[in-house]
Amino acid sequence: MSDAPVLRMESVRKTFGDSVVLRDVDLEVAPHTVTALIGASGSGKSTLLRCANLLEEIDDGAIWLDDEEITDPRVDQDAVRRRIGVVFQAYNLFPHMTVLDNITLAPRRVHGVSREEAEARARELLERLGLGEKADAYPDRLSGGQQQRVAIARALAVRPRLLLFDEITAALDPELVGEVLTVVRDLKDDGMTMVLATHEMGFARDVADQVCFLDSGVVLERGTAEQVFGDPQQERTQRFLRRIVEAGRL
Question: Which CATH code fits 7-246?
Answer without folding.
Answer: 3.40.50.300
